[in-house]
Design goal:
Layout lengths: L7 E9 L2 E11 L2 E4 L2 E3 L6 H13 L2 E12 L6 E11 L10 E7 L4 H4 L6 H12 L1
Parallel strand pairs: 1-6
Antiparallel strand pairs: 1-2, 1-4, 2-3, 2-7, 5-6
Length: 134
C-alpha cells in the first residue's frame, strides 16, 4: 500500500463572541505556528467529522460542522486543506493535546494578521470578515 504524501486535512473555523479560535502548534512548521484546529481526514470520515474531531482532540471544544468553505493547497505544507465552519456546542477551549498544541487563542478580526501573517484562504477570509465584523 502506498501512503499519501500530502493527505487531505480538515480545518475547523470556530467563531464565538466576535472571535475565532486558533491553536498554536507545539512545534512550528516553518512560519506555520498558529492555525485552526486541524488534522488528517481519516478513512471513511467526512471533512466535517474530521474538523469536529480535531476541535475536540486539540482544543477540547465540542463543535458541529456547518459549512464547507472550500478546499485549497496550503502553500507551506503542500497539504490539501478543507476549511469547515463549525459551531461550538460545548466544552471550553484549552490544551486537549499537549503533544500537538501549546496554546489556544480566541482572536479578534484585527489580530488575525499577527497570528497568520501569510494570510488566509480567500473564502475563509471572506467568511471571517462577515462573521467577525457584523
Amino acid at each position: 500500500m502506498i501512503a499519501e504524501v500530502n493527505p487531505a486535512v480538515a480545518a475547523a473555523a470556530v467563531v464565538q463572541g466576535g472571535r475565532v479560535l486558533f491553536v498554536r502548534r507545539r512545534v512550528s512548521e516553518g512560519a506555520l505556528s498558529w492555525r485552526f484546529p486541524a488534522g488528517r481526514i481519516e478513512s471513511g470520515e467526512s471533512a466535517g467529522e474530521a474538523a469536529a474531531r480535531e476541535a475536540r482532540d486539540e482544543a477540547g471544544l465540542l463543535v458541529t460542522s456547518q459549512i464547507v468553505l472550500g478546499q485549497w493547497v496550503h502553500p507551506m505544507t503542500g497539504w490539501e486543506i478543507r476549511s469547515i465552519v463549525c459551531r461550538r456546542s460545548g466544552g471550553e477551549a484549552g490544551i486537549a493535546s499537549p503533544d500537538e498544541v501549546a496554546d489556544p487563542a480566541w482572536v479578534a478580526h484585527g489580530e488575525i494578521p499577527h497570528y497568520v501573517p501569510y494570510g488566509l484562504f480567500e473564502p475563509v477570509r471572506d467568511y471571517l470578515d462577515e462573521a467577525l465584523l457584523s
